[in-house]
Amino acid sequence: MFNRARDRELVHHNPCEGVRYNKEGKRTRYVTDEEFLRVKALANEHMQAILDLALLIGQRRGDLLAIRQGDIDAEGIYLRQSKTGHPQIIRMTEAVRDVVDRLLKDRPRGGAYPLVCKPDGSGYTVNGFNTNWQRLMNRAVKEGAVERFRFHDIRAKAATDLQRAGHDPQALLGHASWTTTEIYLRDRAGQLVEPLR
Prior knowledge:
mainly alpha; DNA-binding; 9 helices; globular; Tyrosine_recombinase_XerCD; hpI Integrase, Chain A; DNA integration; two-stranded antiparallel sheet; 2 strands
C-alpha cells in the first residue's frame, strides 16, 4: 500500500521497506475421519451437506460458496478457481449428486441461486459462513468432540485422503504446480516403509 502511495507521490518513502516477514510454518493439522464425523454429527442437516461437499470436492471456502445451481449438470460441477482462474469440472458421481440433492432440499431452485445458500435462497457472505462455522467448532470443542480445526483443513484432508487412495490431488485442488499441492498434504505418519523382515 505504501509503495502505491509513494508511486502516486502521496508519501515520500515506505516505512515498511526492509522489514522482514514473519516466517510462517507449514500447517500439519490433519482432520481424521473420526473427528470429521464427530463435528458433522453436531451440525444441522444443511451444514452436514456443506461439510460433505467440502470434503468431496476439496475447494476453497470462497469457491464453494460461489457455485451457482446453473453451474451444475449431469456431467458435473463447473467452477473457476478464484485464485488461479483455472476452470474445472468436478465429475458428477453418485456421492456428489447425493450431496447436491441434500443441499437443494427445501431451497429455492434456479440457475442464479447459489448451491450453498440460506433457506431463502440467498448466498452466505464469507463472514456469515465463518460465523456458522465458528459456532459449530466452538460447540465441538466445548463438548470435547475434537481439537479445534479450520474449515480450510477440510481441503487439506481431501487432498491428503485422495493421495493416500493413490490419486492425484493436484488436479482436484486446481494447482498449477505440485509444490503448491504439497503444502496441503498432511502426512503426520511419514512415509510407509517395509522392515527387513
